[in-house]
Amino acid sequence: MAEKNRNFKKRIAVTGGAGFIGSNLLLMMVPRYPDYLFVNIDCLTYAANLSNLSEIDSAENYEFEKIDITDYAGLEQCFNKYNFDSVIHLAAESHVDRSLIGPALFIQTNVMGTFNLLELARKSAVSNSDFRFLHVSTDEVYGSIETGSRADENYPVNPSSPYAASKAAADQMVRSYHKSYGLNTVITNCTNNYGAFQFPEKLIPLLINNIINGKTMPVYGDGRNIRDWLYVEDHCRALDLVFHNGVAGSVYNIGSGSETENIILIKKICAILEKKTGAGPFDKLIEFVKDRPGHDRRYALDSSKIKNELGWEPSLSLDEGLELTVDWYLSQSDWLKKCTSGEYVNYYEKVYGDRK
Ligand SMILES: NC(=O)c1ccc[n+]([C@@H]2O[C@H](COP(=O)([O-])OP(=O)(O)OC[C@H]3O[C@@H](n4cnc5c(N)ncnc54)[C@H](O)[C@@H]3O)[C@@H](O)[C@H]2O)c1
Prior knowledge:
Blueprint: E1 10-15, H1 20-32, E2 36-41, E3 62-65, H2 72-82, E4 86-89, H3 96-101, H4 103-127, E5 132-138, H5 162-181, E6 184-190, E7 193-194, H6 203-212, E8 217-220, E9 226-228, E10 230-231, H7 232-245, E11 250-254, E12 259-261, H8 262-277, E13 286-289, H9 304-310, H10 318-330, H11 333-340, H12 343-352
Parallel strand pairs: 1-2, 1-4, 2-3, 4-5, 5-6, 6-11, 7-10, 8-13
Antiparallel strand pairs: 9-12
């Protein structure tokens, strides 16, 4: 701890750092910025995995604090201990299907948790008016986007699921803290991510895991819902840019522009796995199941603002990113097994059992 008291250039609270995007972000930023202190604040839900962070665990500029962001007193102690000058807020309940089963937890974590962090940021800003608050959010706040158009940052907010609504509520609260208190906020709304460390309830790792285990692949509805997939490391580079250079009070949409129907994505993953394993064909495992209620048909973002203002571009095509992702999951069978034992089995049955 003595080392952690040294004069860091920045002292950043990163919430949700043991989850999918948080792990990728910390693995990128901790070595890149040795002059910054990163404190990972995470209560370690089912979606977290601290072993993702073994590479940086003993870094001098990294600390972990097990705190639930709904616990204001716990957070306040942590803010007092580290004297943060910024927050990168990723902690959330993040899975739409779980929000349909139990929305209350989503309101607690995503809305109340964000409120607690904003309050502490507001108090910290009294002595440090530059206190930075980066709120990491989703394109799902815009709801389904009509064919032919793309959502820019001024697109109406129109969430369809309790998850999307909880994120939209948090976004609005962040906006209000900028307008009402002048807090130095930035918000990012990003499309669907994929890549290493993603919990296998999400579509891409779920498909890979099911194929590896010879299980059917449940496809909602007609499989023609469209998503704009972004490789997680490209998202993390965007977050780094927005954190450092985003204009206070601004919102930045982050999308890859590679809109793809789910069924096409599934066929791509089957083809990559057939090539890598020499087994298959795997598309015989596709099983169409009853659609998810409130399932948005299409997400598509206009990301010109972050491209023009901050010079961000995605570095990988969907095909390149999928290859890397499949390789990662094929090499991480222990990681996958740990995630998919225990509670995951009950969850899977609850979500997909009734849809067949
Ligand atoms: N995954 C995506 O495709 C995507 C896209 C756009 C935006 N986002 C947003 O990015 C953020 C991170 O998403 P992710 O996919 O990494 O999620 P994730 O579910 O993989 O990880 C969430 C992390 O938050 C932690 N957490 C949850 N509740 C908490 C609480 N009450 N207190 C402290 N920690 C808590 C979990 O333990 C976990 O480590 C979320 O805010 C999500 O809404 C995700």
